[in-house]
Design a protein that fits this description.
alpha/beta, 60s Ribosomal Protein L30, Chain: A, homodimer, five-stranded mixed β-sheet, 12 strands, Alpha/beta knot, 2 domains
């Protein structure tokens, strides 16, 4: 049995999931490539797997349909339909994102967050959709290993207990080398162009900065990753 | 006087410079936005400046022509025609790139290189074109502050004197925290998918790695920037 038509209800759902609003309303998203399908399976997040080849555990679809579903020009042979899951457990190290907008930046930050033990990532309003295909691709599986919370950052920060909370700034605050490693740390990265929003700034009392030579700012995923490496 | 036609020789040149081969053959490239035009001027790399508004020191062109020349969908009001310059002076800290291919990664690395004093950047074969519009945009002016060398990396490494040379690897080698800060350091980052090429590996005797938790690799611009931050 091979699915050949895009009027098939399974295929119709997969095509809809290319849009953020349908990912949200269905609580589902797509991953591409056998590596991510396996990762999803291992983490019990896989609903169904699709392949252009007949393989055990996979639903077979035509290459034409796969091309329609897949987001890249490179050949995708397998995709996985996955469940969106969130829980509100907090790790000791928390990364908060205030409207980070570039999918590549978010993906890179997620890899670093996992690598350095920032296992809870809080996505404030205006942050790029976590289940965007580019975010998933550049996060390289970190999406299945982290705990995500979508919320209002001001409320979230006010609700935190026992955490040292840091903003980030290009010049003001404590130089990163002088920040004390603490057990419970939550820090915030802002938007690529505008930094941390005014409302969020008002509920932070300390900022971290990275000393730089003749440079206005670092790429946000670079800055965030250096901080996580240092405070891991 | 306002240029209105794309048959004007100045405009013809600008349009050609969208292609890498013409940038190379003419030794020229384009920057977009008043910030970069000013930076180019300050560094004496500006040949001519163009604007859609009448401004002193700028050649006026129509909005339509500007749209044809500019690389982004966002409105560009000023562009600068700039000279490519290379010299073979070496700073004490050197960043070498072996076929880094994503323009955003290269741009982010250049910002970090400048910020952390890696003022010479060596671009090996297969590395994305430095004067690509995305590289320039994401490098945010670092392009005018660094010294670039395009060369064969194996030859270059063999020619270095008194530098501690490091490769980078995801698992093998010396943990970054244990790398001794030295006066003269040159380190190599490899391609996003394949790492450092076999030929280059053969002329390196030490590797640096960044310890990671349950993560196969970091984004290359993140990994490189953490290393530069640490060894600055």
């Amino acid at each position: 049995m091979i699915i050949t038509s895009d009027t098939n209800p399974k295929i119709k759902l997969l095509l809809k999931l290319k849009q953020s609003k349908y990912r949200k309303s269905n609580g589902l998203f797509i991953v591409e490539g056998s590596h991510l399908v396996k990762e999803a399976k291992m983490k019990e997040r896989l609903v169904e797997a699709y392949s252009i080849n007949e393989m055990e555990g996979y639903i077979t679809i035509t290459e034409d349909l796969m091309k329609k579903i897949a987001s890249t020009d490179t050949v995708v042979k397998e995709i996985g339909l996955c469940r969106i899951e969130e829980n509100h457990e907090l790790s000791n190290k928390i990364l908060m994102l205030d409207a980070v907008q570039d999918p590549g930046n978010l993906g890179a930050l997620l890899r670093s967050a996992k690598a350095f033990g920032f296992d809870t990532v809080v996505l404030g309003n205006g942050t790029v959709d976590l289940y965007n295909d580019k975010v998933i691709r550049s996060s390289q599986g970190a999406i299945f290993k982290l705990n995500f919370i979508h919320t209002n950052l001001v409320e979230f920060i006010k609700s935190l207990n026992g955490y040292q909370i840091y903003g980030t700034d290009v010049v003001n605050g404590i130089e990163l080398d002088n920040v004390k490693k603490e057990n419970k740390i939550a820090f915030i990265l802002g938007n690529e162009g505008n930094g941390i929003s005014k409302e969020v700034k008002e509920v932070i009392d300390k900022n971290i900065y990275i000393p730089m030579d003749d440079t206005e700012s670092l790429n946000v995923s670079v800055a965030g990753s250096i901080i996580m490496y240092k405070l891991r």
